[in-house]
């Protein structure tokens, strides 16, 4: 039986409180903290009878204990993951040469910077080089800029734009002059601000009250969610199918939460766009989020089609797509009627700084122990003091007075800016942001009627909790049959189980699955539909029979059966040639030279047949194989997108080539056993899927065996 203290007590504070009760630290077995209270379990339970006034109800004790354990567990996992990501990054920078890291797409070398002006409050630098840039670094990524050893640099910026030979980076402050010299290097960087925000949010949820406490307890499993009632509505998007309309109708009538399960190509974004518009029509203020900037921009792009909506995109201006900049809070700030006054205020501050800097700054060695007030007093009187000549005294006094005016003006301008930002947010119908940015100062104190969260199956639970903590109810869209969030630490692997997946398994009745897919030819869809979606998916009539034959391509000269434009599904079997996997020294990844060669040949042949190279993608589960294929493509001076399965999630192309890599006599397939990886890989193409692999090795796993049989039955299998 525990005792309960009002207030938060830990460390020395707890010891002092125990002392007041006549207890010692040694009397305590366990301590749990939540809801602004401290729950204490004593080693000697008979002591509890002495403190009967402090004994809580079983229900309250259980709540505090469960909340405490939930928060502490996730805080620990976040910390472990944060350290693992930073360590992995630093270790890779140490272990690999710059060239090797560049081949992996995580660094760009031999750059020279030129000034590219300013934008909002940011300083832009355009880095360029003669050799074309091929990289995984994309717009919105945080990068470490260095000259020499990257680990000795602390210059961070955000990528604004990438062209064939340039990378434009935005810096919050004026960058040092060395960025304008040759030999600059850019590295992809791990941002730990996101981790800190997740931890801060967990601490806030620990002591939540009112509606936030109810939602927190629902998420943890301490409170049963209320069931939905279907709400009839008039869709703004007439193209929505029956399952999309049903999902919106049920979501609108859900008091606590609702989950929208969107398998590949089923119009998940269109559905959540409709939901957001309907919520606004009902007078709600909505926060719409995703874990990544790309997905947040995707929500904004869809919402921007409705001109009556007042939209605000929160986030670093460098991480917002150029065509959506007009919705950025910084762009809206510049259009605000009071913005000109603020601009003029900053110009005046600049003038005052120039004026101040004509005087002598009272550094410690010149002050001789005098305070600001004393210097101003003697300066005004025109007197010397403590051996400081009166001319110097007057100059230091002028510096202090000018500096005081600068401080006062800066404080007033910052308050004006905050007021304008808050006005813009308060006026918005929908605020669009990444999960992490919901914890930024800009949104401090704002509360929303509903949170609509996209990419729910690709974000760790503590990330999803950030928007949930700011709303009265929430809606999550995702697909737990695709890849979970990437977790670097083995110890933190349980972070892969997302809140979306957890809630859909415990409260499946509060979810709706979208069933009409608008991406793939029916024969490409059939296998993942049967294996992962219980056969519930239907191909829309307009995509059902789409093939590359629609593009009037030339006939293939190689792999004639598999590359026949009218055949949507093909497999190139390497089991009869010497195409074994290989593990590069010091690496945990695998590569397969023969498969890489075939993948490149297939891409080149599809292009020769007349398919635009931008509509060809090569997917492979292993980083070493990505690197190898990129090398082979570079040797052939041909460029198509090559990426890991994770890197292609959420994307699509007309033709996708999949290299499975694993090829051995033992039937070992490693992390291909995670079938979500297979699902993502084979659901990216619209018209053509070409798989490359060793059918004997892959068939050791029953699902891959069924996939190969499906291709034989519905497509073409050809020996390499």
UniProtKB/TrEMBL annotation:
Instruction: Outline the extent of the DNA2/NAM7 helicase-like C-terminal domain.
Output: 495-695
> Is Hydrolase among this UniProt entry's keywords?
yes
* Entry GO MF terms: 5'-3' DNA helicase activity; ATP binding; DNA binding; hydrolase activity
The UniProt keyword set, sorted, is: ATP-binding, Helicase, Hydrolase, Nucleotide-binding
Where does the DNA2/NAM7 helicase helicase domain lie?
240-490
Q: Name a GO CC annotation attached to this entry.
A: chromosome
Q: Which Pfam families match?
A: AAA_11, AAA_12
Supply the PANTHER family for this chain. DNA-BINDING PROTEIN SMUBP-2, DNA2/NAM7 HELICASE FAMILY MEMBER
The entry's family comment says: Belongs to the DNA2/NAM7 helicase family.
Q: What is this protein called?
A: DNA helicase
**Source organism of the structure:** Thermovibrio ammonificans (strain DSM 15698 / JCM 12110 / HB-1)
């Amino acid at each position: 039986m525990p005792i309960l203290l009002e207030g938060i007590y830990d460390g020395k504070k707890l010891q002092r409180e125990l002392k007041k009760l006549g207890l010692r630290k040694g009397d305590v077995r366990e301590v749990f903290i939540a809801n602004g209270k401290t729950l204490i379990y004593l080693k000697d339970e008979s002591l509890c009878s002495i403190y009967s006034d402090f004994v809580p109800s079983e229900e309250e004790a259980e709540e505090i204990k469960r909340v405490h354990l939930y928060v502490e567990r996730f805080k620990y996992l976040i910390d472990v993951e944060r350290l693992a990501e930073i360590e992995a990054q630093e270790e890779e920078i140490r272990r690999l040469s710059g060239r090797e890291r560049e081949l992996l797409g995580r660094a760009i070398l031999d750059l020279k910077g030129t000034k590219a002006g300013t934008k909002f409050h940011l300083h832009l630098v355009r880095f360029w080089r003669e050799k074309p840039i091929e990289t995984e670094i994309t717009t919105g990524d945080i990068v470490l800029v260095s000259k020499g050893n990257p680990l000795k640099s602390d210059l961070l910026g955000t990528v604004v734009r990438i062209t064939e030979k340039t990378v434009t980076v935005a810096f919050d402050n004026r960058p040092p002059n060395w960025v304008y010299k040759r030999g600059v290097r850019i590295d992809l960087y791990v941002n730990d601000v996101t981790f800190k925000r997740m931890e801060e949010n967990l601490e806030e949820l620990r002591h939540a009250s009112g509606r936030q406490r109810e939602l927190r307890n629902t998420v943890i499993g301490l409170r049963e969610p209320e069931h939905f009632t279907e709400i009839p509505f008039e869709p703004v998007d007439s193209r929505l199918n029956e399952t999309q309309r049903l999902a919106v109708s049920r979501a609108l009538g859900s008091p606590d939460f609702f989950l929208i399960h969107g398998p590949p190509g089923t119009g998940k974004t269109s559905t959540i766009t409709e939901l957001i518009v309907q919520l606004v029509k009902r007078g709600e203020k909505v926060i719409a989020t995703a874990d990544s900037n790309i997905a947040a921009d995707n929500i904004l792009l869809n919402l921007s089609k409705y001109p009556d909506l007042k939209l605000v995109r929160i986030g670093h201006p460098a991480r917002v797509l150029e065509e959506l900049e007009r919705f950025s809070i910084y762009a809206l700030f510049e259009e605000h009627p009071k913005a000109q006054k603020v601009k003029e205020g900053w110009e005046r501050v600049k003038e005052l700084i120039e004026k101040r800097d004509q005087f002598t700054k009272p550094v410690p060695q010149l002050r001789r122990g005098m305070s600001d007030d004393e210097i101003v007093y003697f300066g005004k009187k025109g007197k010397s003091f403590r051996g400081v000549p009166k001319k110097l005294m007057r100059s230091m006094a002028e510096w202090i007075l000018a500096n005081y005016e600068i401080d006062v003006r800066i404080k007033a301008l910052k308050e004006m800016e905050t007021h304008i930002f808050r006005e813009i947010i308060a006026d918005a119908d929908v605020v669009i942001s990444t999960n992490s940015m919901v914890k930024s100062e800009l949104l401090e104190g704002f509360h929303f009627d509903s949170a609509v969260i996209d990419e729910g199956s690709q974000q760790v639970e503590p990330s999803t909790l950030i928007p949930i903590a700011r709303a009265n109810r929430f809606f999550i869209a995702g697909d737990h049959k695709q890849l979970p969030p990437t977790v670097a630490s083995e110890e933190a692997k349980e972070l892969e189980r997302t809140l979306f997946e957890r809630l859909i398994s415990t409260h499946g009745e509060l979810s709706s699955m979208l069933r009409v897919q608008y991406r793939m030819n029916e024969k490409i869809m059939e296998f993942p539909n049967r294996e992962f979606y219980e056969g519930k998916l239907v191909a829309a009539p307009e995509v059902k029979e789409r093939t590359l034959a629609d593009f009037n391509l030339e006939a293939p000269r190689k792999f004639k059966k598999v590359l026949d434009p009218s055949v949507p599904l093909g497999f190139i079997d390497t089991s009869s040639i010497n195409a074994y996997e290989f593990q590069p020294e010091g690496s945990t990844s695998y590569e397969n030279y023969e498969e890489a060669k075939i993948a490149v040949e297939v891409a080149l042949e599809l292009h020769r047949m007349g398919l635009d190279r931008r509509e060809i993608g090569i997917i492979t589960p292993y980083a070493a194989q990505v690197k190898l294929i990129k090398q082979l493509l570079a040797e052939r001076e041909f460029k198509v997108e090559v990426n890991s399965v994770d890197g292609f999630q959420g994307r699509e192309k007309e033709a996708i080539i999949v290299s499975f890599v694993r090829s051995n006599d033992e039937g070992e397939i490693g992390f291909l056993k995670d079938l979500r990886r297979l699902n993502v890989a084979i659901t990216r193409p619209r018209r053509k899927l070409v798989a490359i692999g060793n059918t004997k090795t892959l068939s050791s796993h029953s699902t891959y065996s069924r996939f190969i049989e499906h291709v034989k039955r519905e497509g073409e299998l050809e020996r390499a």
